[in-house]
Amino acid sequence: MTYRAGGRCAACYARVAWMLVSLSACAWGDGLKNALACYDLAQPDVRYQYARSLREPSGLAYAHEGAVLTHDDNVSTLYLMRHMDPAPPQLWNSQLPVVKGDFEGVAVLDGYVYLLASSGVLFRTHLEQHAGDAGLQRVTTGIEGRCNFEGLAARPGSGELILACKYINEPPHPSRDEVHLYRFDAHSLRADPQAIVVDVSAVRKSHRLRRLRPSGIEWLPTRQRYMLLAGKERLLLELDSAFSVVGATRLPRKFHRQAEGLTVDGRDRLIITDEAHGRAATLSVYSPGGQCSTVAPRGRPRWLSTRN
Predict the structure, then answer these.
(1) How many CB atoms lie within 10 A of CB 57?
(2) Is the four-CA dihedral 214, 49, 68, 58 of positive or negative sign?
(3) How far is it, in rounded angstroms, from Cα 250 to Cα 236?
(4) How far apart are the C-alpha atoms of 138 and 109, rounded to whole Å?
(5) Cα–Cα separations (whole angstroms), residue 83 to 28, 45, 286
(6) Which domains occur in the chain, in start order?
């Protein structure tokens, strides 16, 4: 069963073009109430390269003021990063066992850090590193193997995680106009076997795409919206709380060659991580502006490096 939701001048012209693309976020929604309309994605406020030791950062999760958690694609090791005043990533907890695998998402919910494997298995540990049983617990979700999962979002207050499907493994295979998501209840530690089907037909046709392949998802609590990232297509979608598409915009190729994860911090800054893709992996930060601003006006973009 499935649940269906509803020169200088050249630089100036390029910037205006990207602003117009961003405003297309309102095409399916309600103007500036849409979260995507709050961000000028033409150029990040802060962008920097990861240390050479972390070439495949996959997921992002807001940890606390000024810091996010990330992880490597191939192991369960978690790193803490200061996204506005960056330094080399710090190992978050050296006491945790290292599990090899294909990890594609991280989220923080109700005092736990959750890691998502592409198979649909979750791993969790206490957010407080000195908690008595601060090991790494393997959690079977009941939906293992249904998808190649990529993207994990926490919705605080609901006890719910959302898992995004990049590819569907089980027949019948969905239409190109569908994206599948799954709910996971953090109290019962089981996933709802009924998929949430997101209709992306209007977005796909508008942007002339063959399909959409999610690589990240995040909940924006201040606006009660989800942000769904399709890295291969360089597309960022906005979903309402009922999982209907209310906006979409393209990410500039110059900054996002392989976007893999996203999160928002306590000031609604949008943070996106890109794998190396033959170069250095990067992290980009976009602050909300205009009527949506929750931070001081931004100055010139800062180009920083944490490479060692």
Answers:
(1) 24
(2) positive
(3) 6
(4) 16
(5) 31, 11, 11
(6) 2-305 (2.120.10)
Contacts for 87 with CB less than 8 Å, ≥ 6 apart: 306
Q: Express each pLDDT in 206-248 by its tens digit.
A: 999 999 999 999 999 999 999 999 999 999 999 999 999 999 9
Give the total residue count for the chain. Answer: 308
pLDDT tens profile 139-150: 999 999 999 999
Instruction: Give the pLDDT band (50/70/90) at residue 6.
Output: low
Is residue 228 within 8 Å of residue 214, measured between CB atoms? Answer: yes
Task: Name, in order, each residue with C-beta under 8 angstroms of 265's C-beta and a sequence gap of 6 or more.
Answer: 62, 65, 66, 68, 83, 271
Cα dihedral angle (255, 257, 258, 263), rounded to 10 degrees?
10
SS (H, E, C) the chain: CEEEECCHHHHHHHHHHHHHHHHHHHHHCCHHHCCHHHCCCCCCCEEEECCCCCCCEEEEEEEECCEEEEEECCECCEEEECCCCCCCCEECCCCCCCCECCEEEEEEECCEEEEEECCCCEEEEECCCCCCCCCCEEECCCCCCCEEEEEEEEECCCCEEEEEEEEECCCCCCCCCEEEEEEEECCCCEECCCEEEEECHHHHHHCCCCCCCCCEEEEECCCCEEEEEECCCCEEEEECCCCCEEEEEECCCCCCCCEEEEEECCCCCEEEEECCCCCCCEEEEECCCHHHCCCCCCCCCEEEECCC
Q: Cβ–Cβ contacts within 10 Å for residue 238, how many?
A: 24
pTM of the model: 0.83
CB-CB neighbours of 254 under 10 Å: 10
Distance between CA 81 and CA 79 in Å, rounded?
Answer: 7
**Are 224 and 239 spatial neighbours (Cβ–Cβ below 8 Å)?**
no
Strands 46-49 and 282-286, bridge-based pairing: antiparallel
Q: Which two tokens stand for residue 181?
A: 């998501």
